[in-house]
């Protein structure tokens, strides 16, 4: 009887050790992926982002219900959509559609202002690429950004997404470049005292990105001097910022 109890105890301890080791290995892989995505967030490197997407999908298969891999995968699809936007809009649309799928999965497991904002952003991109369904997706985008605002009205990530909606939406449909500027400037103020997030949350909506979108706003306003000033501020922080170099500056150069 004692021998039998010892065997049961031995197997129980072995299972606990293996489980703990498995969880530790999973968290190590997750932290590594998070660091890699952070490092490539500003790049326009399609092969690199696709490689990270493959890693994220593999980690998702061993995640046991963790929402982070869906969040990472969704953001990688979203970043690829932004790159393809100027190359092939059909591919871009599919990337935004996939990003939405993964953001919604993550949000089912863990609702947050950031995830709701990203869902809104994905719907906003689909609206921009779907003239026939733009109204439907636009309404969806507005709903999710308002839901996010109810959870955390001073979240820079939320405010950045809200500002991009406002700057690209016609005034007749509620858009406002003035309000967009106000939100982006508020982001800069909030970033001065930005406290540490969950260690697995991706780093974005930081100053370089805010300056880039302030530059985008001034490009839309055809104000070359202000646009260039913000572009330079963004590049001072991230010299190889893909969006600025390959998208925003070409837009800037078209201003008469």
Supply the key terms:
single chain; 256 residues; mainly alpha; 11 helices; 77% helix; 0% strand
Shape: globular
Task: State Rg.
Answer: 21 Å
Q: Helical stretch count?
A: 11
Low-confidence stretches: 4-21
Give the SSE string.
HHHHHHHHHHH
Described by its quaternary structure, the protein is single chain
Please report which band the strand proportion falls in: under 5%, 5-15%, 15-25%, 25-35%, 35-45% or over 45%. Answer: under 5%
Number of strands: 0
Can you give the mean pLDDT?
89
| Distance linking N and C termini | 90 Å
Helix content: over 70%
Main sheet characteristics:
none
Helix/strand-derived category reads: mainly alpha
